[in-house]
Every structure is written in C-alpha cells, then in structure tokens.
Amino acid sequence: MHLHRSAAMERSLEQGVFWPRSYPAVYADLGPPLFHHYSPGLCWSVGFLQRAGLALDQSLKLVMTAALVLAGFGAFFWLRHVYSREASLAATSMFLLYPSFLTQTV
Questions:
Q1: H or E segment to which residue 94 belongs
Q2: pTM value?
Q3: 3-class DSSP assignment, residue 71
Q4: Which end of the chain is more exposed for a tag (fewer CB within 10 A), N or C?
Q5: Half-sphere exposure of 21 (CA within 13 A, CB side)
Q6: DSSP label at residue 18
Q7: Per residue in 46-101, pLDDT tens?
C-alpha cells in the first residue's frame, strides 16, 4: 500500500504537482481523494528520494529505517526526563526490538 501511494506521489512530483488531490490510478481513473485523508509526509520523502535516483523499494526502506531510528532517539530522550539513564536505555531497546519479535515464527 505504501509503495503504491509513494509511486503515485513520485508520478505527481514528476509532473510538477507537489500536493496531489487524488490517486488517479484507481476507481476507473476517477481517483479517490486519498491524499486529503492520509498524511503525505511519507510519500513525499520516498518520492523525493526516488527522484534523487534511488529505487522505490530502497527509498521506502531508507525512510522507514530513519523513522525507526528517530523514534528510538525520541523514546530515549522522553524517558530520560522521567527515569534513570539505564532504565531509559532498557525501555528504548525493548521499543526498538519489538518489531523483530513480531516477525519471528515459531
């Protein structure tokens, strides 16, 4: 889903439209107002990286990895105000490692 939206954003960036109103490739080319109800920040980031020369999937992986790293720093600094440094590091590591537990199969 994110790849399709990012590809649509990149096509609109290629045409010079920086804030597209719809996702024109669906609903018999009528286009629902998708970008009115969904934050375009992720699609903009991926679209601009793709325009810079990265592939679509690599751009999405890079943006999602950067978002996860920033979320880890944000969690650490937020928890640092309340708890000790060691507790903040433990909570941040659990926060960052939790997605890998979801992908493991038994």
A1: helix 85-103
A2: 0.69
A3: helix
A4: C
A5: 2
A6: S
A7: 888 988 989 988 998 999 899 989 999 999 999 999 999 999 999 999 888 876 66
